[in-house]
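Board work, copied verbatim: Gamma-glutamylcyclotransferase
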Amino acid sequence: MKPRDSTKEKSSLWIFGYGSLVWKPGFAYKRSTIGHIRGFKRRFWHGDDFYRGDKDKPARVVTLVEDEQACTWGVAYEVTDSQVEESLQYLNMREIVLGGYITQMVEFLPKEKGQGPLLAVVYIATSSNPIYLGPASDREIAAQIAACSGNTGHNIEYLVRLAEFMRLSCPEAEDEHLFSIEAAVLNIFSECGGIKPQKPILLGAS
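↓ predict structure ↓
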């Protein structure tokens, strides 16, 4: 079954979120559905010097890296009518102007049975971005996350919320990179006297 190209219908658009958008889209939408895209893996390789970090200590946030064998789980939001323009204006500021992401169309596969594939727009940060940080060991990424905070909160909150989303909404899915970094952060706090970061209350990926 071919995915429906919702971009050809100006009154409807699907937006795929795989990072903070899974719990905080920040825009009005008609409906949402959990699912995944193929050919990409989620990695904490992008820098953030505004939301979860600053100029002196850029945070680590996720982006997508091409990998034919991988898939990434997240949430797709359908926006319609006036929501289309409003959501894109909001996301272009949040993800492109402040975050350094670009847009790409991807095939989204809903988890819900009976739903066919959809075309969705996704925001991806590439290595050409000046605040792109690239690969590092789990321990190095965890240490950076543990030390950073920005205008919308601590980098740890970002990590924990994303891990909680995967556990609650996609228990059958694997994300070794995400959970390995979460474990590395907990190890850092354990080594510092057993103090663990407080888990935030989920807002829910509605």
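The beta strands are 12-17, 31-48, 59-80, 102-110, 118-124, 149-150, 153-154.
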